[in-house]
Structure formats: structure tokens, C-alpha cells
Design a protein that fits this description.
elongated; mainly alpha; about 70% helix; single chain; about 80 residues
């Protein structure tokens, strides 16, 4: 699920608000009922709002960032 959102965000350059907001239009177009759309939007907003606690972040220098990016691109 996270990979699908990542692809969507990278391709469309959408912020989290727009992803949730625009879900209405996509689901409405597919014939979904309003209560179903609202339920999906609420769940999606919850998933996108997940934040890591500050103590789980680790500061890295520019060289380390470059190395991490290279490894990520190689996956």
C-alpha cells in the first residue's frame, strides 16, 4: 500500500491533502456512494498522517544522504 501511494505521489506530485481530497472524485467517477467515499477518505487520511516520533530520526550528513539515495535507487 505504501509503495502504491509513493508511486502516486511521485507521478502526480500531490500533497497528502490533495490525495485524500481527490479520492472523492475518483471514487465518485467509479460510482461509489458518498458514505463509502467518506470512509475511504478517513482511512486514507489516517494512513497518510502517520508520523515517526522525533527520537526515531537520525541526522545524517550529505555524504551519507548521497550513499542512501544511491542504495535506494539500486533497489
Amino acid at each position: 500500500m505504501a509503495e502504491a501511494f509513493t508511486e502516486q505521489i511521485e507521478e502526480e506530485q500531490r500533497c497528502h491533502w490533495h490525495i485524500v481530497h481527490d479520492m472523492y472524485h475518483a471514487m465518485h467517477h467509479d460510482g461509489a456512494k458518498l458514505d463509502t467515499i467518506k470512509e475511504v477518505q478517513k482511512g486514507l487520511a489516517g494512513v497518510l498522517a502517520i508520523e515517526l516520533p522525533e527520537e526515531n530520526f537520525e541526522k545524517v550528513g550529505e555524504i551519507e544522504k548521497d550513499e542512501i539515495e544511491e542504495r535506494m535507487e539500486g533497489v
